[in-house]
Amino acid sequence: MKHLFYTLSLALILFSCKTETKPEVKTETKVEADTTKKKVEVKTKTYPENLTKVFNAHGGVDLWKSMKSLEYTQDKPDGKEVTITDLNNRKALLESENYTIGFDGTKPWFLNKTGKEFKGYDPKFGYNLMFYFYTMPFILSDDGIKFSEAEALVFEGVTYPGIKISYDNGVGATPEDIYVLYYNAETFKMEWLGYTVNFVPGIDTKELHFRRYSDWQDVNGLLLPKTITGYGFKDDKPTTPKTPNTFTDVKITKMAPEASQFVKPEKATFVE
């Protein structure tokens, strides 16, 4: 997920887990309604039971996969930043008064509108950094992901069961990243995310950082975050909360976004 961002100082180690498993693929046999009675194989992806319950608590993975466009707005120090993502191909556009960051499906690009030094997160990773945080837990339905149980998180006397997420080699920019989703044992709603980061120099790549998901909003039948709060951490445990990231004007629809907006403008530069 390769995926998390400079501004939020990502990093982490995972709890010891049990047997790692990939999503199984069940094969169903259907018979076409013609005289040839030809058999057609239909592959249906399945997930661990506890993860499926988490998906269902947030609206269901089938509804998520029917969506084609996601948009949200965040308040940044220099103004509002609007993010639009094509959910089918993950092309992205982050639009702000002072800059634009995009991903055309192959390469990220950057446009500085002020001429001043840009001190934000690296556009190479920044185009989808918050996207991966924001689209939890549904982003975990992507291909190339392996699941296993993780040691539960205990915080302020409450125990949150955990699901460890790792990646096949070659999946994403940093397949060595690890995530742990912690959920409410009664409601199965996601409560915490632990994660490691492997692209930020000087950070312990085995240490778990944390974000808390405690404020959800219903958008077209899906529970999506209204706020995500980063936490300090010590010994793979969250400590004290930081300033939350707040998401407004959230839109998720079954209509694909206009493809031309993801194309690099003439004045922008590709980021290597």
Explain what you see.
With 272 residues, the chain is mainly β. It has one domain: Clam (outer membrane lipoprotein receptor (LolB), chain A). The chain contains 4 helices and 17 strands. It has helices at 49-57, 61-66, 123-126, 129-134, and strands at residues 25-31, 39-45, 69-76, 79-86, 92-95, 99-103, 108-112, 145-155, 158-167, 179-183, 190-195, 209-219, 222-234, 237-241, 245-246, 248-253, 269-270. The strands form 3 sheets. Strands 8, 9, 10, 11, 12, 13, 14 and 15 form an 8-stranded antiparallel sheet that branches. A 7-stranded antiparallel sheet has the order 16-3-4-5-6-7-17. The chain has a two-stranded antiparallel ribbon with strand order 1-2. Strand 8 (145-155) and strand 9 (158-167) form a beta hairpin. The chain starts with 24 loop residues before the first strand and ends with a strand. Residues 1-22 and 25-43 have low confidence and may be disordered.
Backbone shape: globular
Order of helices and strands: EEHHEEEEEHHEEEEEEEEEE
| Proportion of residues in extended strands | 35-45%
The main β sheet shows up as: 8 strands, antiparallel
Q: Helix count, per DSSP?
A: 4
Q: Compute the average pLDDT.
A: 83
Question: What's the CATH class label?
Answer: Mainly Beta
* Tally of separate domains: 1
Helix fraction by DSSP (H/I, runs of at least 4): under 10%
Question: What name does CATH use for the topology?
Answer: outer membrane lipoprotein receptor (LolB), chain A
Indicate the CATH architecture.
Answer: Clam
The poorly predicted ranges are: 1-22, 25-43
Number of strands: 17
Report, as a whole number of angstroms, the end-to-end distance: 18 Å
Radius of gyration: 20 Å
SS content category: mainly beta
This entry's quaternary arrangement is single chain
